[in-house]
Amino acid sequence: MKSLSRVLLFSVLAASAPSIFAQDIAAPAAKNIIGADDPRLQFLGQIDASNPKQPRLGYPGTGLRLRFHGASLSLHLSVDSDVSALTVVVDHGIPALQLLRKGDQSIVLASGLRQEPHTVEVFKRTETWQGIVTMLGVELPNDGTLLASPPLPARRLMFVGDSVTCGAGVENNSTCTADPANPSSDAFDSYGMELGRRLDAQTHLVCFGGRGLDRDYRGRGLADNVLNAPQFLDLSIPAEDPANRAPWDFRMWIPDGIVVSLGTNDFNLQKTLPLDGKVFVADYVRFLGTLRSHYPDAFIFVTEGAIVTDPLLRGYIQDAVSRTNDDRIQWVRANHYPGNGCDGHPTRLQHQQIADDLEPILRKALVW
Question: Which domain range does residue 245 map to?
Fold first, then answer.
């Protein structure tokens, strides 16, 4: 009865669902609903698939890829907040923003297409703390057909970091005022996702805004029940509420390369509450050791990130890398990108520049 009530609810919501187009387009009246557990659907990123019929997306950049034959496509989902958003790409075209609202809903991903095969990609644009998205299924018109998707790229990249890695602030305006119609977070245009597209690689963003290696921007850590990188690394849903968290089995997806960008938030209180350098370096070595134990063949790139220019942080990270005695763990110098003057997060252009900095280094080390 629960699944039936959801289907009936979708029928009510479809006519008022937000659209990625300039004008709202009603979903097709004919129903051809395909469950989220259909193997022809390709889910992307570090997601919670413990219930295959209702996979949950927390991390930015997680999403869905599919192919279908038909003129239109809708997506059924549920969201636990009013500030989540998606990026939708139809036939490798221009990315479109799709705002979401709290609760069950049906959104039109594509309409008015030719009766031929099409590819649609959906990416979570916002972070876990901004909302968790539960996928419930897709809907085609009666004459539409879900097709098998082509294989995903063989190459795999993981990016572990904070808000910069998550794409926070990419869309900040010149006054840094909140615009509900255009959220500032945009994981799709983060440097990690950009590198994935350039290098034809699957991309996992394992990141959490405001968090660090040992402590968050407020100075809080594990003792305060605050997740930092060593804790959220092995989660698919790094929720604030422990009851809402979900584990991730690292054996499910093995990266070829890992970029680690941590330390900005650890250093946020450096002037008033300095880090213990010995502890920080030892903990960084331990974290790199965890990555190596999970992914013995991966090349690991470690950088201080684009915001903090303190040479002390750079020295700590260089020291940690050298202490690993691992020639497949490499420190990468980060260039400073100052944001737009009122917000220190890098802009869209600056994320492209970060990708410019990293691309030749990754290509050389990974022989890509």
Answer: 155-366
C-alpha pair distances (Å), 167 with each of 36, 54, 131, 185, 228: 27, 26, 15, 6, 17
Are 189 and 81 contained in the same domain?
Answer: no
Cα separation of 131 and 57, whole Å? Answer: 9
Residue 160: φ, ψ to 5°: -110, 120
Q: In sequence order, what are the beta bridge partners of 104?
A: 78
Q: What is the mean pLDDT of residues 36-42?
A: 98
Q: What is the pLDDT of residue 342?
A: 84
- Do residue 221 and residue 289 come from a single domain? yes
The DSSP 8-state label assigned to residue 293 in this structure reads: H
Minimum mean pLDDT range among 169-183, 185-199, 272-286, 293-307: 169-183
C-alpha 239/C-alpha 130 separation (Å) is 10
DSSP structure string for 320-335: HHHHTT-TTEEE-PPP
Amino acid, single-letter form, for residue 164: V
What local confidence, expressed as pLDDT, does residue 341 receive?
82
DSSP string, 147-160: EPPPPPPSEEEEEE
CATH of the domain at 351: 3.40.50.1110
Q: Give the pLDDT confidence of 271-318 residue by residue, as tens digits.
A: 999 999 999 999 999 999 999 999 999 999 999 999 999 999 999 999
**Per-residue pLDDT tens over the stretch 65-100:** 999 999 999 999 999 999 999 999 999 999 999 999
Cβ(184)–Cβ(170) below 8 Å: yes
Residues 234 and 362 in one domain: yes
Q: Sign of torsion, CA 67 68 73 77? A: negative
* Euclidean distance between CA atoms 361 and 368, whole angstroms: 10
310, 316, 321, 325: CA torsion to nearest 10: 150
Q: Give the CATH number of the domain where residue 50 resides.
A: 2.60.120.260
| CA 356 remoteness from chain centre | 20
